[in-house]
Design a protein that fits this description.
TIM Barrel, seven-stranded mixed β-sheet, 7 strands, binds iron/sulfur cluster
Length: 174
């Protein structure tokens, strides 16, 4: 039985959703209701379409130029169990994983206490770009973020050092 994620769309070669060339998967479904959201068509949890995670993996593997995979939306955290299965397919590749979410990392640390899949997911992704889009803090000069409250968090370093470590990707290489 295949595993599916409900998605709005996929961009095969994005250069705006993280460093390098990335496959970006826009998950369907979001309840954060950010004023000024760029993707309100992704809010409805019943719209979009189901996509076999193997198909996403196979498509990514056909592109030798990719640096990584970006999960965007919508908010992938609402489908974290299957998002986890999806990113596990990439574990033995050289592709890194970025996840956008409207939750803050502090909220996710609370939520993971009752959610083993979320626990695993947060430890397997490389970067989390967190927080709702706040139109009062909109800043078009920011790379890969819409508003200044959002943080790019290096998840491997965060768990290693046991404190939140942010990055601007200036030391990124892949
Ligand atoms: S979290 Fe993202 S997709 Fe969801 S409402 Fe906010 S900006 Fe839109």
């Amino acid at each position: 039985m295949p595993d599916y994620v409900r998605i709005a769309s996929v961009i095969d070669d994005s250069i705006v959703d993280g460093p390098g060339i990335r496959m970006t998967i826009f998950f369907q479904g979001c309840a954060h209701n950010c004023a000024g959201c760029f993707n309100p068509e992704t809010w409805d949890f019943d719209k979009g379409h189901l996509c076999d995670i193997k198909k996403i993996y196979n498509a990514a593997m056909e592109n030798p130029l990719l640096s990584g995979i970006t999960l965007s939306g919508g908010d992938p955290i609402y489908q974290v169990s299957n998002a986890l299965k999806l990113i596990e397919l990439f574990e033995n590749t050289n592709l890194d994983i970025i996840c956008y979410t409207g939750f803050t990392i502090e909220e996710l640390f609370e939520m993971e206490k009752n959610n083993k899949d979320l626990q695993a997911f947060l430890r397997k992704i490389d970067y989390l770009i967190d927080g709702k889009f706040d139109i009062t803090k909109k800043d078009i000069s920011l790379k890969f973020r819409g508003s200044s409250n959002q943080r790019i968090i290096d998840m491997k370093k965060t768990f290693k050092e046991n404190k939140i470590i942010t990055t601007d990707f200036s030391d990124y290489s892949n």
